[in-house]
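Final paragraph of the annual report: two paired records, presented back to back.
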Amino acid sequence: MATVKGFIFDYSKCVGCHACMVACYAENSTKPPLSWRQINHYNKQKLPLLGFVHLSIACNHCKEAPCVNACPSGAYTFDVDTRAVIHNPLKCLGCKYCTWACPFDAPKYNAEIGLVEKCNFCNHRLKEGQIPACALNCPTGALSFGDLEEKEVPDAFGLSQKAIYPRISIIGSEVKELVPQMDCCAVAEDASRIRQMEVSKSYVNPLAEWPLVLFTFIGAFLTGWQISSIFESSISLSPWLFSLLGGIAMIISTIHLGKPLRAHMSIFNLKTSWLSREILLFGLFMITGFIALLSDIWWLVIASAIIGFLFLASVEMLYMVTNKKAGFSIHSGNSIAIALVFASLFSMQWDLLIVLIALKVAVYAVTIGTKPKGLSSRIALVSFVRFILGFVVPFGLIAFSNIGFRSILVVSIILGELIDRFMFYHDFEPERPFSITAR
């Protein structure tokens, strides 16, 4: 098998001294606290009797690099000589999607400049026949640089097993089996303290991602309403309201970008990026939807509804790169499911609406019930409100009032579905390198 140059990391030699990080800072003039290379620690609190294991990790310049495929603007390219994955800041939108797609947490978003940065493999050094500064300056030899098999998936704890073929080889991973069983009493630590150490950091804050939440929610809302237009019983949708809401959604979506004025570059990578496809399909949906509603041409209404469905499918494909926090893979906040609820609502298919919201509430309950870390009081409260607004109120109005309070029904379902969409973002997180947990 052909070989390539890449990193070699030995768990048994790493002492967590951070010399590799310092070397990276010095070589590439990056500014702390943002670091292209990071050290993951097990037993970060340095508790006695628990052992110490460290993982030094940066961009591994994968053969099938997920950041290259994910980037909507084509900001990532492969160097023709070294095959290093190079990021071009002039093409970066600051959308941060590559930071979700990379399982090694290599791309780093720099909020000060609104752009992503990442390890460049010390590409200038490689072209001169030298090795990356981080490997050169490791004092214990834990991080080195040499020949690897071209298509090797690191078989070691702490790293992704996806077939993206990173240029890193892991040795010495048997140290995991040598980590001692901690005696809690010996260090005056109780079991709850140890369990707290095992809680991994959440990388996605749904409140911080509110532009994405609202953009995808409005897109699902409009798609559902457009689908309902196929039925004669549908509540009519004004083309001007359609355009207004769509325009608001597009403006909101740019707020998520570090460089909003580069939003037009988001469709430059239709070949591999689901984000590019999402944006293009949303634009086509808005154009065809407006014309269809204005002209009332039935086949154009159907075509617009199909394009809207494809847009939502692209939305969901975006998040296939992430992990679910719960043990249940289906989520009630799926944008297609939200669209179907609104389609049944605005076409006044009451029996179908009851079935859909009942199914969604059941899926929601299973999702929160299978979370390994349980529920916080805040999430429990949100879940209760979601149940009341998303099921109890609609069911009561449909079953007992003969839809006499239609405006209340619409508002209740909108709020319930919006909460569901926020929870969708709460319930996933990007794959990350991880340290072993306490046993």
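The closing record of the year follows.
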Amino acid sequence: MNNESDIFRKIIEDISTLSKAYSHLEAKPRCFGTDDLLHCVEIHIIEAIGNAGKISVSSLAERLSVTKGAVSQKISKLLACGMLVKIPDQQDQRAFFLALTQKGKIAYEGHRRFHDDFFQVFAQANNGVSLKKLVEFEKTLSQMTKTVEEMK
């Protein structure tokens, strides 16, 4: 690798390999502090609701870039296992918001710890990593994503 183009090709190859490995990691359901096995989409629903405090199904679907129908199926499961609760909308009798139950909050915090642990493993494997390097890396990935999006 002796020029920018070769290095860029290697970066693209590494990103592709990372994407496949990360997809494999996310495909495996996990427990996040409760006895419930949650798939990636389910814990990300919990994360979005936990970050929002309470949220409508429409807003949740928009935030996750999925259809209301797709998110509704997962919401039913999370309601049934006691992770979520419906809160009636005071202004619209037909509408409701979703919020985390105590069990949902445990999973939310477990997911945060999962990401913290992931970072710790990464940092240890790289003899620590500076905030400056992380910020530069994030900016580079953001710009690459923007470029790919523009090329669609």
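The two ends are 28 Å apart (CA to CA). This concludes the annual technical report; the extension proposal builds directly on these records.
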